[in-house]
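TASK: fixed-backbone design
INPUT:
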């Protein structure tokens, strides 16, 4: 899925979901080299949740209030109820045992090519939809994120 946010027409957002990923450990070791946000799909229950995180990251970037180095890591931080980037990456980012991934690439028009779906991810590309997210969301994991943040 590729789209633009009406308020941020200068950016192209590519959103992909992969199932049966078998090389999450390799991808995790190359995080700094790859221009993507890799999110463990167990922590996401809807397209709206991801879209809100992307929107918030774009707002933070526009007003020079980003707390991370890239828009991609800002998306992961925007998913988190806390403002600790390390905590957000640990809870929402790719893990070595991740088998379902959400991949985000945000490109400023003219700076880079939009995501064409071809990466070094070994897995099955599946539709981006609420129905698909619900099948891989882990409600207990999501509850634990909320409970741990309240402490």
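OUTPUT:
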């Amino acid at each position: 899925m590729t789209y633009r946010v009406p308020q941020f027409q200068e950016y192209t957002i590519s959103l992909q979901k992969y199932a049966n990923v078998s090389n999450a450990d390799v991808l995790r070791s190359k995080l700094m080299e790859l221009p993507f946000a890799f999110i463990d799909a167990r922590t996401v229950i809807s397209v709206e949740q991801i879209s809100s995180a992307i929107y918030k990251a774009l707002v933070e970037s526009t007003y020079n209030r980003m707390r991370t180095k890239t828009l991609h890591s800002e998306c992961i931080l925007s998913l988190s109820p806390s403002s600790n980037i390390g905590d957000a990456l640990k809870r929402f980012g790719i893990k070595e045992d991740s088998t379902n991934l959400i991949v985000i690439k945000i490109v400023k028009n003219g700076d880079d090519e939009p995501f064409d779906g071809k990466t070094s991810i070994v897995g099955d590309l599946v539709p981006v939809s609420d129905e698909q997210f619900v099948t891989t969301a882990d409600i207990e994991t999501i509850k634990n994120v909320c409970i741990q943040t309240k402490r």
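COMMENT: The first helix runs from residue 24 to 29.
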